[in-house]
Amino acid sequence: MAKKKPTFETPELGEYYEVPEVTEGTMAHLSPFVAQPVHNTDLNFPGELVDDWHGKALEKLDDLRTRYRSLQVYLDSCVKCGACTDKCHYYLGTKDPKNMPVGRQDLLRKVYRRYFTFAGMFFPKLVGAADLTRETLDEWYSYYHQCSQCRRCSVFCPYGIDTAEISMAAREILDSIGYGQKYCNEIIAKLNKVGNNLGLPGPALADTLEGLEEDVFDETGVEVKYPLDQKGADILLVTPSADFFAEPHVDGLIGYGKVFHEAGLSWTISSYASEAANFGMFIGSYENMRRVSLRIRKAAMDLGVKRVVFGECGHAWRVAYAFLNTLAGPFDFLDPDYPVPQHIMEFTWDQIEKGNLNFDKSANDEMTLTFHDSCNVARATRMGSKPGGQMEIPRNVIKAVCNNYADMHYDTIGEKTFCCGGGGGLLTDDLMEIRVKGALPRMTALRNVMEEEGVTHIAAICAICKSQFTKVLPYYGMDMDQIVSIHQLVSNAIIMTGQNTDDVETK
Amino acid sequence: MSYFFALLFIFATLVLVIGLARKIIQYARTPAPLKIATTPAPITRSGVVLRMFREVVFFESLFKGTKWTWLFGWMFHIGLFLVLLRHLRYFVEPSWLPGWIWTLIELIQPVGIYAAFAMVAGLVGLFLRRIFVDRVRYISAPSDYLWLILLGFIGFSGLMMKFVSHTDVVMVKQFFIGLWTLSWGPLPVDFPLIVHLSLVAILMIFFPFSKLLHVPGVFFSPTRNQVDNPREKRHLAPWAKAMEEQN
Fold it and tell me: Inter-chain contact A287–B243, Cβ cutoff 8 Å?
């Protein structure tokens, strides 16, 4: 695709990310492309905006608040304390007050109040309630697609109000009246048809995996298998389809294969369920999320595997860790000795702890690493048996395979991590402006740790983060190759049994 | 006049109790279909109780968020709590409560006075913040200011009665104790008292229809009250179960 010159200005990196003054309407112009009718109907939504959208939208809002306690409680409970106002990377990067978490929530809350609360029905002005108009609808479409559902706001809210819950509800309302987003709905439709978000059919996958086997053999002299649809394998690996496709994702996939090989376990990818990501969550649709999840259940049953392991992917790990058992469980047909599902990071760290893997850490010596906690991994999941394992285990793995590591500023990692700017269904070119501006806090923290600690590369365990960084790093004067997969680092350092190491030494 | 206030408080109490009960029942009945605890989260029930305790008593999340808002907000709430405890003796007889609770209420009496100052100071701080921080000003509706003003005048009129023009609290106590049996005595006719009582009644009446619903709301917040154990224990809402059984 031809690269278009950006029509917006990239924010300048300051010494520290600053809280900007409220500047109304700076992002009002930005909306993603609207979904084609055929993609909406594939997902059981009306093809186009229905005539009675007003009544139908309110009906859906009423329906959702009786099905989701989060929505009902969060619409009622906000006291406008302002604690969240300076926490969203999209506000910090755009100055638009409707990108403050509470500002974004209020777009829906003002309508809820107007039609469903006593105060809003009789004293709308007093409590900030407002009618649902066509303008409101467009504003929902615009601003609820400027939220990456990263949950940073929910960390600081005294009532735990999570804007992601509100965004998901709003997107479901929009979908239910035929006003869906192209990027998400097209991708879900593609997955339902082909099995993955990129639309890679089985033969293409087989070809890619065969190529990887050859590459790894040429490089190491070890016959590492990258099996597809292999019945009776121990492990089903479910990984984001980006891992089959692009740098640096594919280097991670190579790493998973080497780890499985050294662990002495057979594994397979399924062409039917060749996607870890579940965009059903982005659009807040339980039904679509469940439909996507059931593919994984079916693949695990058909292939007769004992365990399910997920590759490096952020929102995917949220759906897998927190929702899969609910949506597609129970998984009583799998080996009860292992968590279902397991994260590849848990798997690898377990192997490292058992002493099953040998590393030459110096293979990563030309890099100094930092780690970007992916938002949904950090704030919506866990790894290992202890709370916080999702921050610890990836760092442990990095430190096991690299000599040089430094964290970014503590206010920008762990549970307070800043989103990469491209999550939650925003990883599309038509939203490039919000993606670049939303990356500002993360880019600031990265640049600081580069200057202060000599960091050269940033590792991530999410396909969206990796793609997003590849795109936005150059906007901020950095290099797109600075983003790496953790299992790429593992792959660099691992010395497999029987591996030819001569050429490494001569360098 | 005491007749009017008697009716007003009976009405206000009914509205508050029934209104809050209705909301609590609504929250309790609405399922949370997915596990959405904000992590790192406790992995046991007792861990969740501890997390909720820290949230409700110390405002842990707000402390992480904004120190000034935490300071003013916490001053106000803890002040209000102590003041309410101090006020208990106006509504209940010692013999109605277990001895140790009454001892606690008596111990709190002197603290309650200072707590009133903390409460009013906290409210002033919150009000100034609402005016002067542009982001908070942007999100404020008229009702957000009015609640602060209302609560401020409740505190202020209360302090007036304590320090400027004393009200006959024995009479006030007889009035409210009498309300329980619908045999109230006369209320003293004092301007600060009338203001104080009227505003409290207004607060009670509007409580269940306002953002003050954060009080029951926080206990029902799934990001805070869920145990982080989705892999270990299958979580399924009734409507999701019904959906499963259909296909």
Answer: yes
One-letter amino acid at A297 equals R
In chain B, residues 82-121 whose CB comes closer than 8 Å to chain A: none
- The range of the structural domain enclosing residue B236 comes to 2-29+40-246
Among A69, A83, A340, select the one facing B62 at the smallest CB separation. A83
CA dist A303 and A230 (Å) reads 7
Dump pLDDT digits (tens) for A327-353.
998 999 999 999 999 999 999 999 999
**How many structural domains is chain A composed of?**
2
Choose the final residue of a domain: A180, A196, A225. Answer: A180
pLDDT: is B77 or B103 the higher one? B77
B42 interfaces chain A, CB cutoff of 8 Å: yes
The reply to whether A337 and A454 lie within a common domain is yes
Angle between helices A249-263 and A344-353 (to 10 degrees): 40
Collapsing DSSP to helix, strand or coil, B36 comes out as coil
Q: Which domain holds residue A203?
A: 188-499
Rounded alpha-carbon distances, angstroms, from residue A135 to A28, A62, A270, A457 = 11, 20, 45, 44
Chain B residues with CB-CB distance to A163 below 8 A? none
CB A180 within 8 A of CB A283: yes
Kindly tell me the burial class for residue B24, based on how many C-beta atoms sit within 10 Å of its own C-beta (0-12, 13-18, 19 or more).
middle
Three-state secondary-structure class, residue A460? strand
Q: DSSP strand E in A62-135: where?
A: none
How many contacts does A have with B, using Cβ atoms within 8 A? 217
Crossing angle between the packed helical segments A134-143 and A163-176, to the nearest 10 degrees: 130
Answer whether A100 sits within 8 Å of B138, measured CB to CB.
yes
State the pLDDT confidence band at A5, using cuts at 50, 70 and 90: low
Residue A4 lies in a domain: no
pLDDT in tens, B210-234: 999 999 999 999 999 999 999 999 9
CATH code of residue B130 = 1.20.950.20
Is A160–B135 a contact, with Cβ atoms under 8 angstroms apart?
A: no
pTM of the model: 0.95
Alpha-carbon distance B18 to A415, whole Å? Answer: 39
Select from A148, A180, A212 the last residue of a domain. A180
How do residues A60-74 score in pLDDT, each as one tens digit?
Answer: 999 999 999 999 999
Residue A384 lies in a domain: yes
Note the ipTM here: 0.96
Q: Is residue B199 part of a domain?
A: yes
**CA A147-A150-A153 angle, 5° bins:** 90
- B interface test, pick of A23, A65, A79 with most B CB neighbours within 10 Å: A79
Minimum-distance CB partner of B142 among A72, A125, A290: A125
Q: Do A162 and B64 touch (CB under 8 A)?
A: no
Instruction: Clarify whether residues A142 and A241 are in a common domain.
Output: no
Do residue A322 and residue B35 have CB atoms under 8 angstroms apart? Answer: yes
CB pair distance less than 8 Å for A128 and B141: yes
The answer for B 180-219 residues in CB contact with A (under 8 A) is: 206, 209-211, 213-214, 217-218
